[in-house]
């Protein structure tokens, strides 16, 4: 049989998507070496992970940066760091994605300056700044400024790149974290498109882009989505995204060129769906999730990055990242997927699924627009409350067994895994000396520059921020003057202020009337009576810069359902703020949530603070991605309980919290 003549086969194979690995840690030099190795292995684009201080606009020597430097990404504090990050990598020939949001303008200015130093023509540089601040208020937590000011920065970047970097994607509307925060496919599509409308409205209304060039703006807007393990549903979601994006850009913005209206997206498959229990199961999850965004040619991702099998355990090693890259390469080059047109064209099942998502997403989008748009929906707490409630329902289904997670709530019997036999050696370890080196480096950088030039650049930035002037030129001047990340963000904080997003806990409920929760509620009430207090009081704290608050919020919701009075002040708190709240609110228990890997610095700081405040008796529990050895260290330091992702039953966790309180107060 002549396979090349098989009916339905394309005349030539479709072009593969850009293959990326989300990478960055320790230092710019170490990350540069990792980039070089990944490119040598066949990776076709770079995806830069920045550390939390960089993402939230702090220098490595800031109090909030303690324990966070270089942990979940690369620290970039100034132009010297950006030079080291891309040393020997020709930016004009490398497609670079930067996952950066609140300080996206700053990082793009650093990138562009390095490109010019390399002799690159910026009009040739291709890549993406994520630059989607809305989802940060809802899920990921790396916002800095209020929503309206943040959208102004986004619009300025869009207008700048349209003129200076026409091949650059200035914004990457990110629904990825919405799904992790609880969004259903309908909510993910509806809320993400509401964000896109807000960005395009801001650009249009800024007066910086002529109406006839809105098509040029639209064609550079990309999306970054999540792909879960229900891959048939995910295919329908992506096709629905394309239908609605075409409709919105045609009808709302008058874009007549169908090529400009094409839905362009990249994808990272669902990292938070990976499990610590039986982590080898994550391999098949990743493969199935990859199929959801590659099988349908008409809705195929333009770029794909896959997590590693061990991301629920800690930072992946280069070998783990290589394994994920090889998955993409096998699908693209060994299988026949790229040889055929769309496999689902004419499918009655797929058409019905797409119509269902489109109809539901239109309702969600219209609801947000009726509230006044996505900024109003953030500020009123509507979007956050909707996500917290959806995630609570998802957790309820998993706890009840209605949704099966293999190795977690069913089929938990297992052999010991050779993949994790090395213990802490199964993940990348960040040398604690990295932070000290970064602190020393940023201080030397400040000492070696012309302070008067720095002051003048920052003064111009503040002055321009107080007007409607595009802030990119002033930002580029700051880069060239040697301003640091923290100084740039600090200057804008002075003008725009800082923001604390709604927590979304009001009205959310997750446990219902399940029998287990009823028993725990009785225990909570009995313990409160024995202690002579009206209600047990739990402080949920997020120390440091880790903004992934989904788990903390679900604990808070379930604890409140069980009868606790919950004190939750949101994310990004210093140890001193947590200690002060614990003392002032006279709580019975402090629960700390840390997912960034900074637990060995953040948790002892709170314990020391409680001792200094005379409350060494106050029990502290910790939850997060915490290796077994680190858990032992925390318990030895005085932590009463350590919870990790394998502790999925929220009601059981709340019952444990009651036990901790009783033991701390010598109750039987």
From TrEMBL:
Keywords: Cobalamin, Cobalt, Isomerase, Metal-binding. Its cofactor is adenosylcob(III)alamin. Residues 535-668 form the B12-binding domain. SUPFAM superfamilies: Cobalamin (vitamin B12)-binding domain, Cobalamin (vitamin B12)-dependent enzymes. Gene3D superfamilies: Cobalamin-binding domain (3.40.50.280), Methylmalonyl-CoA mutase (3.20.20.240). Belongs to the methylmalonyl-CoA mutase family. Heterodimer of an alpha and a beta chain. This is Protein meaA.
């Amino acid at each position: 049989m002549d396979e090349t003549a098989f009916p339905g086969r394309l005349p030539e194979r479709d072009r593969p998507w850009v293959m990326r690995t989300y990478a960055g840690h320790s230092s710019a030099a170490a990350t540069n070496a990792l980039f070089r190795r990944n490119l040598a292995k066949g990776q076709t684009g770079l995806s830069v992970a920045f550390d939390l201080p960089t993402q939230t606009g702090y220098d490595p020597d800031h109090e909030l940066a303690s324990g966070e430097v270089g942990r979940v990404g690369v620290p970039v504090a100034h132009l010297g760091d950006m030079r080291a990050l891309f040393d020997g990598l020709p930016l004009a020939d490398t497609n670079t994605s930067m996952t950066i949001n609140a300080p996206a303008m700053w990082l793009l200015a650093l990138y562009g300056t390095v490109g010019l130093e390399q002799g690159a023509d910026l009009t040739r540089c291709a890549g993406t700044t994520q630059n989607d601040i809305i989802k940060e208020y809802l899920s990921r937590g790396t916002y800095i400024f209020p929503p309206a000011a943040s959208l102004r920065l986004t619009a300025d970047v869009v207008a700048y790149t349209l003129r200076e970097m026409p091949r650059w994607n200035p914004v990457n509307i990110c629904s990825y974290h919405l799904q992790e925060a609880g969004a259903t496919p309908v909510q993910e599509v509806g809320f993400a498109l509401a964000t896109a409308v807000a960005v395009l409205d801001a650009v249009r209304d800024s007066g910086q882009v002529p109406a006839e060039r809105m098509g040029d703006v639209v064609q550079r807007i990309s999306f970054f989505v999540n792909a879960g393990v229900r891959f048939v549903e995910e295919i329908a979601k992506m096709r629905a995204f394309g239908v609605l994006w075409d409709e919105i850009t045609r009808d709302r913005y008058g874009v007549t060129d169908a090529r400009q209206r094409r839905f362009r997206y990249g994808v990272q498959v669902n990292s938070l769906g990976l499990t610590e229990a039986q982590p080898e199961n994550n391999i098949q999850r990743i493969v199935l999730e990859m199929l959801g965004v590659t099988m349908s040619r008409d809705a195929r991702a333009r770029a794909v990055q896959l997590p590693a099998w061990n991301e629920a355990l800690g930072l992946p090693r280069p070998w783990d990242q290589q394994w994920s890259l090889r998955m993409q390469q096998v699908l693209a080059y060994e299988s026949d997927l790229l040889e055929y047109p769309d496999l689902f064209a004419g499918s009655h099942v797929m058409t019905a699924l797409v119509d269902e998502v489109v109809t539901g997403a239109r309702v969600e989008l219209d609801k947000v627009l009726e509230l006044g748009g996505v900024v109003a929906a953030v500020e009123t707490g509507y979007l956050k409350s909707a996500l917290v409630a959806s995630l609570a329902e998802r957790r309820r289904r998993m706890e009840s067994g209605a949704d099966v997670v293999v190795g977690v709530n069913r089929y938990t019997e297992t052999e010991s895994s050779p993949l994790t036999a090395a213990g802490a050696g199964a993940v990348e370890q960040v040398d604690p000396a990295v932070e000290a080196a970064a602190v020393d480096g940023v201080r030397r950088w400040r000492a070696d520059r012309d302070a008067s030039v720095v002051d003048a650049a920052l003064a111009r930035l503040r002055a321009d921020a107080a007007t409607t002037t595009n802030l990119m030129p002033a930002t580029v001047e700051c880069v060239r003057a040697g301003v640091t990340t923290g100084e740039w963000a600090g200057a804008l904080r002075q003008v725009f202020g800082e923001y604390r997003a709604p927590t979304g806990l009001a009205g959310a409920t997750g446990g219902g009337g399940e029998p287990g929760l009823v028993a725990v509620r009785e225990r909570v009430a009995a313990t409160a009576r024995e202690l002579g207090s009206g209600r047990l009081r739990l402080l949920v704290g997020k120390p440091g810069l880790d903004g992934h608050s989904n788990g903390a919020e679900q604990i808070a919701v379930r604890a409140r359902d069980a009868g606790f009075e919950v004190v939750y002040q949101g994310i990004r708190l210093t140890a001193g703020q947590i200690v002060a709240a614990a003392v002032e609110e006279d709580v019975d228990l402090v629960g700390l949530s840390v997912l960034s890997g900074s637990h060995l610095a953040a948790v002892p700081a709170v314990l020391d603070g409680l001792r200094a405040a005379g409350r060494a008796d106050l029990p502290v529990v910790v939850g997060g991605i915490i290796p077994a050895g680190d858990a032992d260290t925390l318990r030895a330091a005085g932590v009463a309980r350590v919870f990790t992702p394998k502790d999925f039953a929220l009601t059981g966790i709340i019952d444990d919290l009651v036990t901790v309180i009783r033991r701390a107060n010598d109750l039987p």
